[in-house]
């Protein structure tokens, strides 16, 4: 619940606007990849990495070693689940762009 104060409302509005713009930009990237594949017949991979909302950095600041290590520790088990036969497979787009079909082959 957002507090009924101008600073809280503006902060929440900026947060929601940023999230919406990010999802739109990622969907646009997937669409561009589809267009490139259709027009040029190539294979385009789009990979999306996101940090869970409940992640709390161990130290405040940008690019702090402890925070970077915590993020790596968070992502490594997930990345291991994507490795199949020495090749990495992904379906990250389904989380962001459910209308795009993805192949697991």
Structure description:
Helix content is 54%, strand content 4%. By secondary structure, the chain is mainly alpha-helical. The protein has 2 domains: 1-46, no CATH class; 50-97, no CATH class. The chain has a two-stranded antiparallel sheet. A hairpin with a 2-residue loop joins strand 1 (83-84) and strand 2. The longest helix has 35 residues, at 6-40. The protein is flat. Residues 85-105 have low confidence and may be disordered.
Major β-sheet annotation: 2 strands, antiparallel
- Note the gap between the termini: 43 Å
H/E element sequence: HHEEH
In the residues, how many domains can be counted?
2
Record keyword descriptors for this entry.
two-stranded antiparallel ribbon; 4% strand; mainly alpha; disordered C terminus; 105 residues
């Amino acid at each position: 619940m957002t507090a009924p104060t101008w600073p809280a409302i503006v902060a929440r509005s900026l947060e929601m606007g940023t999230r919406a713009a990010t999802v739109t930009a990622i969907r646009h990237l997937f669409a561009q990849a589809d267009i490139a594949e259709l027009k040029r017949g190539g294979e385009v991979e789009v990979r999306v990495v996101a940090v869970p909302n409940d992640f709390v950095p161990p130290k405040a600041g940008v690019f702090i070693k402890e925070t970077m290590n915590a993020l790596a520790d968070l992502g490594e088990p997930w990345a291991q689940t994507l490795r199949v036969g020495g090749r990495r497979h992904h379906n990250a787009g389904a989380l962001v762009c459910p209308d795009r079909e993805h192949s697991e082959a």
